[in-house]
Design goal:
mainly alpha
């Protein structure tokens, strides 16, 4: 737009004023005004992702994967199960240019997506723990609804931290804390890993011995948020809840150096420090005061404060973005995903920052980010390693020199930022001392307020008593004065009545005495009133001093300075990451150079080429080959053999026979979606036991070296579960193609199990196998199905 305006200003014009000057309102007035250029829409996130990856690439980028690889890959990543043969064939036959995008959108809107995300986040958050307070189906149903509703991830995680389990509607969210028994050290480690991508376990007793930037202070800063929370058993309701105290401070001492910290401030890992907290008098600290059978609920919850701070944490955002990337790509930009630290930099630092920022800008929308990742060329690349002889490589020496020339400027930027951090850290340290001084004054001032109020209360009580005594004496004095006057009048009329005269004298004497007492009571009441005013003034002054001390807390100044330090530290981290990213490019270039120097010797060239392939895979120039998770493996095995589709048909029939209220009350246009949701949930509930049966054998499948254990081999080769699924006949895969000729049967088996058509060699092998099995063809088909599902190829995403 600026270039357009400059061009317009420089263009010749027929109307000139004076010495060639132009008035803006008459500029080319005899011509229609030129329309301002429309600003170009910013590139979509998936385009920016590809631009960053392409710019960082050293060497060629792999081509797009085949439709067969893509459809299997995207179904596994977005629904947790391979496609059916019909679904795969439908995609193969689709000629639309945007068929991949259409499939991505369709799968993200499916009930299978919500189920798969629920299972994925269950494993991520609970790490296959046994049930304690919350049952797995209840917990998974809560997660499934969250993903079906596309609930923002920051809200989901906030509930995990803040929910206390008292409300049945939100109770499942409390499983993260309850099933860890609220043990503060376990929580500190797991919160660090799961929420922030940092495993602080080895920093509990000292600074981490292997990771330079994991400190004991980091551990206890996070520990301070959860120290006050504990498990509470509601005896009446017979369920575990979460209670919390209003006091309790973290402290530590290194077993190695003796360095210590007392009254450790709550602090997010590499993030905000909560130095200033609301102050309540002891009598006002609780909504519910903790007792033997009463759950403590403080007015201010440190655990709740942690939940509220998540959204603003850079490390939290980066962790979520990294885990979503790892879900789609098989490894994180930071890998392992729970070891974010300086010496384990992101493979693409700018990309991770971009993903984290865009995730936050888009309200932590997991579905949106997964869609953007799936649309990238990077995600859709082939995982087939290129052949060395067919690959064009850049001249390594020239490339290395160009890359190394950029390094000094990046290193200089690191040193510059270190100085800025030191200055800001000194400022914050001084302010922290000031805050600590203010905080230390508050309890003393609060005690002074309480004492002054107590004295003022006693003075008010004494004044009330004095006022009551004075009022009584006034009444008595008035009555006696009136009586003395009347008695005197009577004596005057009866002067000879000695008895009356004596009585009148006594009344007069008593009236004088009470009048004197009234004068004393008046003085006492006046003194009491003066004391009441004085003590009330003192109480007000004490309260004003307390309020002034609270107001003097440099809250805004602290927030500003704390954020400035965090920003500076983040800039330093990014600068270090930029150096590391450049070093990774140099290392890839050197690996290429190593191969080029050895390519004449096949024995030396092969491992050198493998090293290049490994670096290209980490650099996302080549798609990684991912092994299936336990849940993906179990569900896909049931899909391939027809068990899943059979259960879905049975579930749909049962639901349609006895429709639940959700289906009966749904609008006509919404019924198909509601029915699909109900069928998915019902079918999975019926097959849940099968998925669980695989857990002990394959629960750690993803990320492990692929090598079947003895138990896995026996389970697959001799166990009744798998052999029953591949048994001959019925409506399952072994029964469907029985009437097909050999070629069509082979197609059906390969598309159903491996999501691709067979090669000619595979067709020939199948035909040869079946040639002599005419008498027991169904059993032979079952053996073929077993061979395919037990193959290495089936266990990977392609």
């Amino acid at each position: 737009a600026l270039a357009g305006l400059l061009a317009l200003a420089a263009a010749p014009c027929a109307h000139e004023l004076g010495a060639g000057q132009l008035r803006a309102d008459e500029l080319c007035a005899d011509e229609p005004p030129a329309a301002a250029p429309t600003p170009a829409a910013p590139p979509a996130l998936h385009e920016r992702i590809d631009a960053l990856i392409d710019a960082a690439a050293v060497g060629p980028l792999a081509p797009a994967c085949s439709d067969a690889d893509f459809v299997r890959r995207i179904y596994l990543d977005l629904t947790g199960v391979i496609p059916t043969a019909d679904q795969a064939r439908g995609f193969f036959a689709d000629q639309a240019a945007d068929r991949r995008q259409q499939l991505i959108d369709r799968l993200l809107g499916s009930p299978q997506y919500a189920r798969h995300m629920a299972l994925t986040w269950d494993v991520m958050l609970m790490e296959r723990r046994n049930d304690k307070s919350i049952k797995t189906p209840e917990w998974q149903a809560w997660l499934r609804k969250a993903f079906a509703d596309n609930r923002p991830l920051d809200q989901l995680y906030r509930d995990l931290v803040a929910t206390d389990g008292a409300d049945d509607a939100t109770r499942p969210a409390a499983r993260f804390l309850l099933d860890r028994d609220l043990e503060p050290n376990l929580l500190t480690r797991d919160l660090g890993r799961v929420l922030f991508g940092m495993d602080f376990q080895c920093a509990q007793c000292h600074d981490h011995p292997l990771i330079d930037d994991y400190y004991q202070a980091d551990y206890y800063g996070l520990y301070a948020f959860v120290l006050r929370s504990s498990l509470f058993t509601d005896a009446k309701a017979k369920k575990a809840l979460i209670g919390e105290k209003a006091d309790g401070e973290a402290s530590y001492k290194s077993v190695f150096t003796g360095d210590a910290g007392d009254n450790v401030l709550p602090r997010l890992p590499k993030g905000a420090t909560v130095a200033i907290e609301p102050y309540f008098a002891k009598a006002e600290q609780y909504v519910s005061v903790p007792a033997k059978e009463v759950r403590g609920v403080p007015k201010y919850s440190r655990r709740g404060q942690l939940a509220g701070l998540l959204r603003e944490s850079t490390e939290f955002r980066r962790n979520l973005a990294n885990r979503l990337w790892a879900h789609m790509f098989g490894r994180g930009l930071v890998h392992p995903v729970d070891f974010h630290y300086a010496a384990n930099p992101p493979s693409h630092p700018e990309l991770l920052s971009l993903l984290a920022d865009e995730l936050a800008k888009n309200n932590f929308d997991a579905r949106w980010l997964l869609r953007q990742l799936a649309l990238t060329r990077a995600y859709q690349r082939s995982c087939d390693a290129p052949q060395a002889a067919a690959t064009s490589l850049p001249p390594a020496a020239e490339l290395i020199a160009q890359l190394e020339a950029r390094r000094p400027a990046l290193v200089a930027r690191v040193e510059e930022l270190k100085g800025a951090i030191a200055s800001k850290a000194a400022e914050r340290k001084a302010l922290a001392e000031q805050v600590a001084k203010h905080k230390a004054e508050l309890p003393m001032l609060d005690t002074a307020v309480a004492a002054a109020r107590e004295v003022a209360g006693k003075a008010a009580t004494e004044q009330k008593s004095a006022d009551e005594t004075l009022a009584k004496k006034k009444d008595q004095s008035q009555v006696l004065a009136d009586a003395a006057t009347k008695a005197g009048e009577a004596v005057a009329k009866l002067p000879d009545d000695k008895v009356l005269a004596e009585a009148a004298a006594k009344i007069a004497e008593r009236s004088k005495a009470v009048a004197a007492e009234m004068e004393t009571a008046t003085k006492t009441a006046a003194d009491a009133a003066a004391k009441t005013k004085s003590t009330a003034d003192q109480a007000t002054a004490a309260q004003d001093a307390f309020a002034k001390a609270q107001a003097a807390m440099p809250t805004e100044q602290w927030t500003t300075l704390d954020r400035a330090l965090i920003d500076a530290q983040r800039q330093l981290a990014d600068a270090n990451y930029a150096v590391a990213a450049l070093d990774a490019q140099i290392a890839t270039a050197k690996a290429i150079g190593d191969y080029q120097s050895k390519q004449a010797d096949p024995a030396s060239a092969a491992p050198a080429w493998d090293a290049v392939i490994d670096r290209w895979t980490v650099g996302v120039q080549l798609a990684p080959l991912k092994s299936l998770t336990n849940e993906q493996f179990a569900m896909s095995l049931m899909q391939a053999t027809g068990v899943l589709s059979g259960q879905e048909a049975a579930s749909q029939a049962a639901i349609e026979k006895s429709p639940p209220d959700a289906l009966k009350n749904a609008a006509e246009a919404d019924r198909p979606r509601v029915l699909a949701d109900l069928v998915e949930q019902h079918a999975f509930d019926q097959l849940r036991g099968n998925v669980k049966a695989f857990e002990n054998l394959y629960g750690t499948l993803q990320g492990a070296d692929f090598q079947a254990t003895v138990n896995q081999s026996l389970f697959f080769g001799n166990g009744g579960t798998v052999l029953g699924w591949v048994a001959a006949g019925g409506n399952r895969l072994t029964g469907r193609p029985a009437a097909l000729d050999d070629a069509a049967l082979t197609d059906e088996l390969y598309v159903s199990v491996l999501t691709r058509l067979p090669t000619q060699e595979e067709k020939d092998d199948t035909a040869a196998f079946l040639k002599d099995r005419a008498s027991d063809r169904p059993a032979a088909i079952g053996e073929l199905v077993w061979a395919l599902v037990s193959s290495n190829e089936f266990r990977f995403n392609h």
